Amino acid sequence: MTKSNVDLLQGTLDMLILKTLHLEPQHGWGISQRIQQMSKDVLQVNQGSLYPALHRLQRQGFIGSEWGTSENNRRAKFYRLTTQGKKQLATETANWQRLAGAVAEILQTV
Amino acid sequence: MPERRWSKWLTRARGEGRPGDDADLSDEVAFHLEMETKKYIEQGQSPREAERLARVNFGAMQRHVEECRDERQGNQIDMLMLDVRYALRSLGRNWGFATAAILTLALGIGANTAIFSMIYGVLMRPLPYANGSRLVLLEQNAPGIGVENAPASIPQLYDYREQSSGFDELVEYHTMFFILLGRDEPERVQTGVVSDNFFDTLGVTPLHGRTFVDGEDDLDSDPVLVLTYDYWQRAFGGDPDVVGQVFEMNTKPHTVVGVLPQIPQFPNPVDVYMPTSACPFRANSERNMAGNHQAFANLFVFGQLADDATIASASSEVDRVIKGFESDFPDNYPSGGEYNARVVDLKDQLTSNARPMLMMLVATAGLVLLIACANVANLSLARVMRRESEIAVRAALGASRGRLIRQLLTESTVLALLGGIFGLAFAYVGLDILIDFAARYTPRAPQVSIDGWVLLFTLGVSVTTGLVFGTFPALPGTRDLGRSMKEGGRTTASGGIQLRRGLVVLQVALSVVLLVGAGLTLRSLSALQAVDPGFNTEQVLTARVSLDFAAFNDMNEMHDFLQELNRRIGEIPIARAAALTQKPPYRSVNPNLSAILIEGKDAEDSLGRPQVDFNAITTDYFETLDIPLLAGRTFNSGDAQGTAAVAVINETLAREYWPGQDPVDTRISFDDGENWVTVVGVVGDTRLYGPEVAVVPELYRPFGQAGMPTWLVVRTVGDPLAATRAVKDTAYSMGSNPISDVQALATLRDDAVASPRLTASLLGVFALLALAVTLTGIAGVMAFAVSQRTREMGLRLALGAQPGKLLNMVVRQGMVQVAVGLVLGVGGALAFGQVLADMLFSVDSGDPTTFVVVVVTLAIASLIAVLIPARRAIAVDPATALRSD
Fold first, then answer.
1. Which run of H or of E encompasses B94?
2. Which of A8, A53, A104, B350 has its CA 20 to 30 A from that of A89?
3. Under a CB-based contact definition with an 8 Å cutoff, are residues A55 and A44 in contact?
4. Cβ distance of A47 and B70 shorter than 8 Å
5. pLDDT in tens, B678-694
């Protein structure tokens, strides 16, 4: 399972978490697996930095949390996107696309 | 991003979406690890390996927990705890710095804690009398006839009571000694004689039994006693059953009715209190006071102000009353006396003697704390400057300047609090010494203790200290972080080194102040100790004989008893000589001068007559105390009652009033020439009242012809106190006359300079500590400054600079700050000298010798402190220096 993983750029983890939660509320482990899956195993979430990021987002009011029951009937903390978080996701997605587009432009022309 | 912060606060304030605590987090992590493990097991790993992989993926648990906590920005307490923990860790890594700083601070804070507990206990705490704030003391003066603070007479007190309305009560107090019989030995008890409502007026509740009740000062009431706490402890071991016991005093039974709590005793400490009717002298005066408005003028008058009265209104009332005395009783009030009266706050009276001493201590302790602060600020500044790149990195990683300052301030406050804890220990240890010291100045000293207010003060001082010395390094240390980064921590913000130099200037200046203070008190002390008392204090026992007046029919019997006692004590085997004197050395405070007339000199000019201090002695007095005979003869057994009246004078009297003449065989008179006394000898001067009291003209008369000497002086073989038992037994074999206050004369001589010695030691210790702290400060700053310039030095040397010149340059730069500090310090010391002036003996508070010695010593010591690091700096090998980074 040692693929050539790409470390996440600072700030992009937050965006990916918001994106993941856009689909449905999810617990921390689920988020990390989902990001890995969606990126076809290219992006490896540093699991340790996941939780500080979750707490940060919650403090900023972009996500909320409550305790629920996981798919295998365990108590787990589920995170969900707030309205403010949805707006933030839209902004960040737009920013990202502008940035990625610009970088791609440069790389193609040179 | 201020809006973020706002929303954070709002989120918290609303209590919504409040992130979980650490327990929540660990549940969450546990779930995560479980899922991860399960995933690996499903992939075919062994359970143990699966668990290991899960943990490895997750990384260091504790760090994440802390990161999460940071992200949550938990509450301020959490942050503070984090800062405190960080501070402790960082101090632990620098234990050398931490120890130096904590000890320095402990010294400063400890000194201030001890001094504050004194100030609080003596000056600020309310009097332990329920009516303390309304209590006043009556003061009568007659400057026109040179009378100050005259005690009141019985008729005066009664008139004040009748003619004034500003007092709820006016009560009287005087003190006498009586002999208490009924215990193992006859005992001399110092007795406070008071109105029956004295304790009610003060607002004192007895510890056991009762105080006096209304009517107990009526002349025909039965005598009762109230014991003071100290006497009760000393004589009865604190036995409450003493209430109800009966003792004999003045040939009458006296019943103990109560025991007082521990209260300051003013104006004198006494053993027992009795109502006025029980004092035979006062009772006798009261019976016979008709026609004498000055009868028994021996009373202190205490008052409790009425609710609508003030000190000013009560003062003008009593002043009006005393002015009336002058016109109503012209026979008892010499004209031109300018009589006036006023009342003063009792608390001020209780503490006025202690004020200068306390002010001196406050000033000293304050200076010590300032030096300590400056030194620790200096140390921390050096440390912050070394950590500059660390701080810059942390700032780059997102720590705000406020956050960094807060961290540094937390560090300094933690240091100061630790210093405070040790300081409290210092204060606790030193307090007993200070209380003994203060007891010499105020009856309130026993009330000094470390209590809640003092602890609060210490806490306050510690926190303030931490913030003050923490702010110095924090401000420049966190200012120009971008530049520190660029310079790779190689050089220093010049603001920092300037500040350190400033702190050195301050330290030097304060050290000068303390050293001069210590120097002045030391010189004063050695001057005191060098004073020749004029008598030999070694191997002499002194003791007081208290005559049981009830046991004698007349003065002749007392005289015969004392002469016989003197003779028998002289025959005790280890006694070499024994004598009685009216004026025991070191026991009284001031000479008591009276005018004499010298035969053949101008009799009219009464003011120009010699003022002499009179003493009555037995024949062997001069021999017992080794006072040299300079001319004529001393007394012998022939100088007795009924033989020719004779006197011996001291050298000062002879020199001042018989200049260039021989006083022997001239005559003097005490009663305007009615009776004449022949001077038969001249003896050496003595200082009976302590070394600081100037020698006065002294005149001795033989016992039998004058006076009633009741103090024993006994020259012994070996330890004088070994004769105590024999002296007492001799006295008790002759009747119930107590022997008390037994002391070796040498001890009394030491005690006479105990206060100045303690002052000098306190200041001396503080000053030496300050000096040590300052010198290390100078050396530290110097070492730091030159280490910053190692490359420059190397370069200069490599380019051919002469080491000598280089050294000269470095030293000169270092000494500039010392010189500035010395100049400022001399100014400060002149001001501090004013505080000390009252406590100095034969030394001027601007004493040039002291100033020169201090300045020169400090300059030389500083030069050495500067030279050591400077020499190291130029000894550097240019090649190494250039490579150093």
1. none
2. A104
3. no
4. no
5. 999 999 999 998 888 88
Strand arrangement, sheet containing A75-81: A26-27, A75-81, A63-69
ipTM: 0.82
Q: Does B14 touch chain A (CB under 8 A)?
A: no
Annotate B5-37 with b (16+ C-beta within 10 A) or e (fewer). eeeeeebbeeeebebbeeeebeebbebbbbbbb
Distance separating alpha carbons of residues B681 and A83, to the nearest angstrom: 115
Both tokens of B502, joined, read 């400033």
Phi-psi region of B735 (alpha: psi -120 to 50; beta: other; left: phi over 0): left
Chain B nearest CA to A4, separation (Å)? 16
Dihedral in degrees, nearest 10, Cα atoms A65, A70, A75, A79: -10
Q: Would you say B550 and B250 are in contact if contact means Cβ atoms under 8 Å apart?
A: yes
- CB neighbours (10 Å) of residue A3? 9
Asked whether A57 and A13 are in contact (CB, 8 A), the reply is no
Q: What is the pLDDT of residues A2-31, one digit of tens each?
A: 334 455 565 678 888 888 898 888 888 888
Cβ contact, residue pair B20, A46, below 8 Å: no
Q: Which residues of chain A make contact with B39, given a CB cutoff of 8 A?
A: 33
- Least CB-CB distance to B17: which of A53, A58, A76? A58
Helix/strand/coil for B75: coil
Cite the beta strand spans of A1-95 per DSSP E: 26-27, 63-69, 75-81
| B64 contacts in chain A (CB < 8 Å) | 48-49, 51-52
B46-60, B452-466, B526-540, B659-673 — which is least confidently predicted?
B46-60
- Nearest-CA distance A48 → chain B (Å): 5
Contacts of A28 in chain B (CB under 8 A): 28, 31-32
- Which domains are assigned to chain A? 12-109 (1.10.10.10)
Q: Which run of H or of E encompasses B176?
A: strand B167-181
Cβ-based contacts of B38 with chain A (< 8 Å): 72
Output the pTM of the full model. 0.65
B657 Rama class: left (phi>0) / alpha (psi -120 to 50) / beta: alpha
Task: Count CB-CB contacts under 10 A for residue B191.
Answer: 22
**In this complex, do B31 and A48 lie within 8 Å of one another by their Cβ atoms?**
no
The pLDDT, as a whole number, for residue B17 is: 40
Closest CA to B845 of B854, B856, B834, B853: B834
Percent of residues, chain A, with pLDDT higher than 70: 88
Q: In whole angstroms, what is the distance from residue B98 CA to residue B415 CA? A: 7
* Paired tokens of A43: 């992006």
Question: In terms of DSSP bridges, do strands B208-209 and B252-259 run parallel, antiparallel, or are they unpaired?
Answer: antiparallel
Contacts of A52 in chain B (CB under 8 A): 64, 67-68, 70-71
Cβ atoms of B85 and B363 closer than 8 Å: no
What phi, psi does B489 have (nearest 5°)? 70, 20
